[in-house]
Amino acid sequence: MEAIETEITAPVPEAPVGDQPVAPLGRAIVITSGKGGVGKTTTTANVGAALAALGKRVVLVDADVGLRNLDIVLGLEARVKYHVLDVIENKAELDDALVRDKNVDSLYLLAAAQTREKEDVSTEAMIGLIEQLRARFEFVLIDCPAGIETGFRNAIAGAGHAIVVCTPEVSAVRDADRVVGLLPHDWKPELVVNRLRPALVRKGKMLSVEDVDAILRLPLLGVIPDEPGIIIATNKGRPIALDEHSPVGAAYRQIASRLAGNDVPPPTVKVAEPGFFSKFGSLFGGR
Amino acid sequence: MLDFFKSLFKPQGSGATAKERLRLVLLSDHLSLAPETIDALKADLFDVFSRYFEYDASQAEVTFDHREREVAMLASVPILRVRERTLPPVALAPEPPAPVAVAPVAVAPVAVAPEPPAIAEPEPELEPVEAEAVEAGPAPVAALEPEKLPIAPAAPRPRKRRRKRNAAASNGKAGVQPGLSAGHSAQA
């Protein structure tokens, strides 16, 4: 309890960007994709960490009931005592269930229940929970499960905005397209193209960001290059967004900065010269 | 094997393939149409064109343009010249809401050419007039039209029938049919 309270005294943003008219409430953003394995959880963790590193108060909600993963990516698995359902069913206080991140102070995790099913969560309860969190955090990032069933519906229920994660693959784009059609019509979801390999795009062997963008027609929030570093970071349980030297981290930080309302140049991807595959850094942000 | 090596040097890689597959799959997702249905639609379209115009089948194409959240159908059909005697078929079409059951029967005889008048008997008057006035060619096509309409709603069936019809029709006449059949094969 105390820990949270002290956090709340941190500077409150003048206007929590965008769709929420009521100033004190934070922004609830669902990270979704339809297809599994495209990087929703990784994106949630990294964008959240980068936002928190910018000084924002951020909570990450793992809505993937039954397949909890966000705690692993953040390296917080040993600290999780209670989960979303404990809070919803009044078995635990929200404050006890919120796990403080070990790397960034203003980042919290609300883990999913690992041994329960998605149907155990009611949509109303989820909406109530997110509302509660919005009152206390500037950003509530909801990690949506794959699929378009109950878990998906619950995950988007309390949110007011969506980030659609998509890899440059036919199946992923198709699923992303489907998911966009299932989101509330007045939302303006933003697109993150994940695991782009510019060298392959250059050879015409991978869908380009433009290809994906032309089909989904969503505002492009970010482009994340594919890089071994992300695997190593996940192994260690430390978001790569906190790695100053990683181009992937830089791409996530750029997304966070844009979400925080900063005027960040649009993510442009120039195709790498052969042999310079590792020099991703120069490919982003027009700098 | 050779294709493999060729593909190594082609500027358009599998990315282009992916793009095209994606385009098509999303198209049918959005239209909720099966690929067969789209093929059948194209076949029907060209069929109708061929009744009014002679067109360059090798250049004719039907594309679907994916816009914001909708798909527009664009048909590009270079017309070579206007076909004469387009009126009778039009007049015919609405007339017989022909019994569907009769349709299959009609297909076979048409191929045999001389027969049509006899078959047309159940549908009185109009048919014989047609057969007289028109050269051997267009008549069979006209005779077939009515059947197409009642059947059209069922997606897969028209395709099978169309093939029969092509075969039948190309037996019937020289001028029109090359265009038609070429058109069909181009879509397939």
How would you concisely characterize the structure shown here?
With 287 residues, chain A is of the alpha/beta class. Chain A has helices at residues 2-8, 40-53, 70-74, 84-88, 94-97, 123-134, 150-157, 170-182, 198-202, 209-216, 228-236, 247-259, and strands at 27-32, 58-62, 98-100, 107-110, 139-143, 161-166, 190-196, 220-225. Chain A is globular.
Labels describing this entry:
heterodimer, A: 287 residues, alpha/beta, Rossmann fold, 8-stranded mixed beta sheet, 12 helices, 8 strands, globular, B: 188 residues, mainly alpha, two-stranded antiparallel ribbon, 10 helices, 10% strand, elongated, disordered C terminus
Q: Could you give the order of strands across the largest sheet of chain B?
A: 1-4
Q: What is the helix/strand order of chain B?
A: HHHEEEEHHHHHHH
| Tally of alpha and pi helices of chain A | 12
Q: Tell me the name of the CATH class of chain A.
A: Alpha Beta
Beta-strand content of chain B: 5-15%
Total strand count of chain B, please?
Answer: 4
Kindly describe this structure.
The complex is a heterodimer of chains A (287) and B (188). Chain A is an alpha/beta fold. Chain A has one domain: P-loop containing nucleotide triphosphate hydrolases (Rossmann fold). Helix content of chain A is 36%, strand content 15%. Chain A is globular and about 55 Å long. The N and C termini of chain A lie far apart (43 Å). Chain B has 188 residues and is mostly helical. Chain B has a domain of 120 residues. Helices cover 62% and strands 10% of the residues of chain B. Chain B has a two-stranded antiparallel sheet with strand order 1-4. In chain B, helix 3 runs antiparallel to helix 10. The two termini of chain B are 25 Å apart. The relative contact order of chain B is 0.14. The C terminus of chain B is likely disordered. The chains are: A alpha/beta (287), B mainly alpha (188). Chains A and B meet through helix 8 of A and helix 2 of B.
